[in-house]
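A reminder from the course coordinator: this example appears on the midterm review sheet, so study it carefully.

Given structure:
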């Protein structure tokens, strides 16, 4: 069958069809390339995952900061409470000291016993006026400078001294805070002896002989 030649108009239409088809194919390829991720992009994590991790880390840091702040606040409150309690105790002790100082006791046996009883009451040391007076009269006759230089204590180098004839080691062990640290001081001697008697016999009132 003899080849048929296309007239110029038909040839132009056919060329246009091929051109459109080629353009469509090229466009499809370009779209595919743009949609498909590159190896570098495919390896990178999704931005949303990174943001989520950052949020979790930030939350942990804030939680630790809150915990540290709470501990610091608690410690500060405890320090304030301790300071207030210390101040209250100091004020109470100061008032007690002023009250003792304000009380006037005569400088004689009666005054020494009554002052010692006031201190013993504050310190929780048992004893009565009668018990103290009875033992003082037996031990020293009421002389605060009385000293025993002949018994076993004296032979050992620690003679008994004072109203209630106390040796130095016993005085040092049972000395009552707030009284003079002098063995022959009348009030210090009485309170130390009463403190010792309370420990050994329950009270100075229970003592009826050498102790």
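Designed residues:
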């Amino acid at each position: 069958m003899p080849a048929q030649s296309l007239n110029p108009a038909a040839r132009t239409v056919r060329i246009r069809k091929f051109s459109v088809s080629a353009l469509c194919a090229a466009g499809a390829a370009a779209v595919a390339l743009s949609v498909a991720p590159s190896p570098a992009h495919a390896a990178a994590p999704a931005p949303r995952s990174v943001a989520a991790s950052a949020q979790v880390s930030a939350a942990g840091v804030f939680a630790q900061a809150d915990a540290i702040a709470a501990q610091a606040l608690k410690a500060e409150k405890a320090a304030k409470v301790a300071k207030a309690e210390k101040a209250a105790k100091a004020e109470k002790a100061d008032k007690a000291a002023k009250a003792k100082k304000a009380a006037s006791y005569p400088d004689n046996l009666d005054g020494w016993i009554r002052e010692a009883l006031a201190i013993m009451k504050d310190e929780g040391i048992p004893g009565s006026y009668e018990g103290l007076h009875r033992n003082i009269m037996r031990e020293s006759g009421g002389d605060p400078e009385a000293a025993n230089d002949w018994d076993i204590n004296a032979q050992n180098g620690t003679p008994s001294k004072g109203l209630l004839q106390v040796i130095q080691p016993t005085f040092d062990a049972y000395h009552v805070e707030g009284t003079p640290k002098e063995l022959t001081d009348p009030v210090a001697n009485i309170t130390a002896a009463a403190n010792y008697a309370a420990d050994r016999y329950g009270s100075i009132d229970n003592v009826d002989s050498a102790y």
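Helices lie at 8-35, 39-43, 47-102, 109-123, 129-139, 152-155, 168-174, 186-201. Residues 47-102 form the longest helix (56 residues).
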